[in-house]
Amino acid sequence: MDSQLFLGVFTDEHDILEATKATNKAGYTIHDVYTPYAVHGLESAMGLKPSRLTYVCLIFGLIGLSLGVYAQFWIGSIDWPLNIGGKPFNSLPAYLPVIFELTVLIAGLGVVFSMFFRTKLRPGGKNFMPDLGVTNDRFVIALEQKDTSFNPETVTKLWEKFNVLEARKCEEVTN
Amino acid sequence: MSTHYSTLRKPIIEGNKSLNQVTEDVARPLERKATPLWWVAFLISFSVLMVGVVAVVYQIKTGIGTWGLNKTVGWAFDITNFVFWVGIGHAGTLISAILFLFRQRWRTSINRSAEAMTIFAVMCAGIFPIIHMGRPWLFYWIAPYFNFRGPLWVNFRSPLLWDFFAISTYFTISFVFWYIGLIPDLATMRDRATSKVKKAIYRFTSFGWNGSVRTWNRYETVYMLLAALATPLVVSVHTIVSMDFATSVIPGWHTTIFPPYFVAGAIFSGFAMVLTLMIIARKVMNYEEYITVDHIEKMCKVIIATGGIVGLAYATEMFMAWYSVNHYERFAFMNRAIGPFAWAYWTMVTCNVILPQLLWFKKLRRSIPFVFLMTIIVNIGMWFERFVIIVTSIHRDFLPSSWADYSPSIIEITTFIGSFGLFFTAFLLFARFVPFIAIGEVKGVLSYGKQRKHEPEKEVETVKILEPKLEVVED
Known about the structure:
The complex is a heterodimer of chains A (about 180) and B (about 475).
Chain A: E1 5-10, H1 13-25, E2 30-34, H2 42-45, H3 53-79, H4 92-119, E3 139-144, H5 152-160, E4 166-169
Antiparallel strand pairs in A: 1-3, 1-4, 2-3
Chain B: E1 2-5, H1 19-31, H2 36-62, H3 77-101, H4 111-132, H5 159-192, H6 196-205, H7 213-246, H8 258-284, H9 293-323, H10 327-338, H11 342-354, H12 362-365, H13 368-394, H14 410-433, H15 439-445, E2 450-452, H16 456-466, E3 472-474
Antiparallel strand pairs in B: 1-2, 1-3
Helix pairs in contact in B: 2-14, 3-4, 3-7, 3-8, 3-13, 4-5, 4-14, 5-6, 5-7, 7-8, 8-9, 8-13, 9-10, 10-11, 10-13, 11-13
């Protein structure tokens, strides 16, 4: 797959943003764009939809909430009811702090691990990298050359308007 | 490429840095040999830590009878230190989460180190209640899990248990938040590393980060979600810490003002500690263009705002004690102000309310030595606040026959000093081995306050008109 990629290397946030928009508009299949920091607007320029991780977070939060409510209710009222000053066994107001903490804890950890899973980030993991400079000061567009109409020269010409540093075929890089 | 500076917005990062320069500047302290100054600081902190370890081992072996507590004063130095350290931690989350939600982009050059400070401060805080349990090797009994002791469950109605949940959640979420922020920077270090060992370590810790926009998109979403979760979390943590006191019936503790009062105090003391550390770090590590005088001034403004809330809370407490016509309440507060611990009360008022008013003056806010001195004063004042709240409220209880004095034993003092050893040892190791400034985030704000030069053929007219107002700098 990697050998099929055609790369455009840029040095500026503004250039990559405009170049991505133009490349997307011209109908090329963008494999991915690589940047040293989060460039705002790039995801929409690439045509990406907003991440659905917010819903994942909500679901984990609800799980934490239910766990907090049910565990305290079960422990306090069913498994080990303790009469403390004649208060009701199921004293919900007193349970709120722990319910809240469990909601936050499980929502936070859940969404983080979902992100790791979805983005293939893992300890010692290795993901494809087009250029070592993308973690420093290079911005790279990687195009797929699968389309029959793909012509490197036209793309390069398009990118030249946006001060492309180099346009080349992808070579194997190890990080 | 030439750069225009905006006339309206000042750049957050000074020195017109390029992307590569930012990487170089942040990586430099990690890639060079440790400086003699670092070694001196490290050896001192580490020795202090070791003294603390000896004190902790001794008191665990002998029992907490080694403390200066008595029948009346059952909580004193230990809990003071716990609340002090937890409070300090709050500034890190305020900077990393709350200022993020408020889009305060200047936070990018201090958030990494402030979050690290949070983590270390919570670690220091955790020591004290664990020792106070008396049998710290059984501390895990506070976690509710299926067991063979009954099954015997914890009391979910107890604020001390809420505290366990709050602090452990706070520590976990803070750590995860901090580490998520670190991943792109560790990848930067990985791609720069020359030695095999370093590369292997960074490869392991950077989780295979490759800067893909698909990943960035999800990363930014999660970052925002964590900030949104951490914001109410940090408020809940000190609220629950204050409930350790407020849910009791002790005059001086039993007030509903405690949660907001404690949260404001926590941010107040935390910002003071952040400033103490940043003022040293920016000088020693040559980060004066990243952590600028503007940053310091902004943090001073937070100090004066939260300090104002703290001052108001002191006044409200006093007023309510008088206005409630509750004898016990009145006595507790008169005892604070003119009783045997009046010296501590007035130290607190001087350090937290009176002296910080000097920060209203812009000249003083921008004077580094003055701000440094002020942060130390605020730290001292906030330690005394907790001491005053805890000790003066209980040392003269309802029965005058059981009134007692309190002074900390040498073991308690050594433990407290030892916690500073832990804090600074951890912070120095962090400054030596982890990118001190969030490289990825700072790069994102480099263009702030700068205007890109427009294409000359298109906008030549506009540029000419604007020219006299703009300063052109070639880079």
